[in-house]
Amino acid sequence: MSFCYKYPRPAVTVDALVFSTDKKVLLIKRKNPPFEGLWALPGGFLNIDETLESAVARELFEETGIKNIDLKQFKTFGDINRDPRHRTLTVTFIGIINNSNDYLPTANDDASESNWFDFEDLPNLAFDHSKIIMEAILKIRI
Q1: Is the pTM of this model over 0.85?
Q2: Residues with Cβ < 8 Å from 33, sequence gap 6 or more?
Q3: Collapsed DSSP state (helix, strand, coil) of residue 139
Q4: Over 70: is that where the pLDDT of 124 sits?
Q5: Cα distance between residue 127 and residue 122, in whole Å
Q6: Which stretches of 37-142 are assigned E, i.e. beta strand?
Q7: Is 113 part of the annotated catalytic residue set?
Q8: How far apart are the first and last CA of the chain?
Q9: Which one in 1, 51, 67, 114 has a CA-CA gap of 20 to 30 Å to 102?
């Protein structure tokens, strides 16, 4: 299947917000530009032949080694300058687990590290991920 458009189209990404009831969020350290070396939500670009749900599960597994999390669509974020490469929309998904110690992340693919962070002690984050995490925390109220 090939597509050819006269007008530019935005890129679509997915991001996984995996929270634990012990008030932690799963993050990855970016291995590549943009924002190389900063922490971010696990996520990435949607492939042309996959659903949003399969894309977020794939990206979560590729970057953290974690799978079988029940992820539910949360919100789409689309500020014009949220990605310095091009116009990007991200569809975010939330998954809540009981205890972060039950899921030990391992960095893979585009991640140089992967770890759990307390809600109250987040590192500097790439893109608009601070905003996304804060909105999600208000929504889930763990």
Answers
A1: yes
A2: none
A3: helix
A4: yes
A5: 14
A6: 39-40, 43-45, 72-77, 88-97, 111-118
A7: yes
A8: 44
A9: 51
Classify 11-140 by CATH class. alpha beta
Are the C-beta atoms of residues 42 and 116 closer than 8 Å to each other?
no
From residue 129, alpha-carbon distances to 10, 15, 39, 50, 51 in Å are 19, 9, 9, 23, 22
Catalytically annotated residue among 62, 113, 120, 135: 113
Closest by alpha carbon to 61, among 7, 125, 108, 93? Answer: 108
The mean per-residue pLDDT over the stretch 71-89 comes to 95
Burial class (CB in 10 A: 0-12, 13-18, 19+), 86: exposed
Chain length of the chain: 142
88-97 vs 11-20, strand pairing mode: parallel
